[in-house]
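Request: When convenient, would you put together a sequence paired with its structure tokens?
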Amino acid sequence: MTKTDRDTLRSLHGRKKWEHIWAYYKLPIAIVLIVVYILGYAAYRHVTKKEDVLYLGLVNITAGSDLTEQLTTGFAEAQGLTKKQRVDLLSGLLLSESESAEEQYVYASEMKLLGAVSAQRLDVVLMDEYARDRLLADDYFLDLRTLDASFHALPGLNAGGTVLDISDTPFVRQAGFSGRVYLGVVQNAPHPERAAAYIHYLFQR
């Protein structure tokens, strides 16, 4: 700002001073406001960003609000996680042979599931019997006994050790599913140790 500009500003008062500032300096003011907004937004995202400590997918099953809370927030609290850590839930996946299932939706679910696995954004899958058979045929799951040797004694573990029947665990039993519910951990799970802890959580409650 030159001396002339400063003298002009001193001579103006009230509304005329602000009109003068806006007329001659709106571009730098706008740039400063944009920079402040960008910095503020970046800081907000950094403070509020959640860390995904486990990726959970529901295939061909729907969990009510109470069960969803137990499967996600309940586990996080049992693990003593911070408020910035969470279980990321991927729900609404449908791999179904029923006539009521829309073909496009089933295809979209298959692509979403494949994308999550490819991007390593899926650890644990809870599913019905049909989804279990489909995913087993495609060799989606690892041997759970490699996560924890004690898992060989879990009731409901299939012969290959890759799928676990969790229908009789407290949370799932209380939810009242009409069919059996199964658990598998995908081959390239990004959080295998947390997946093992999740299985312990389901059986110990």
Remarks:
- The two ends are 70 Å apart (CA to CA).
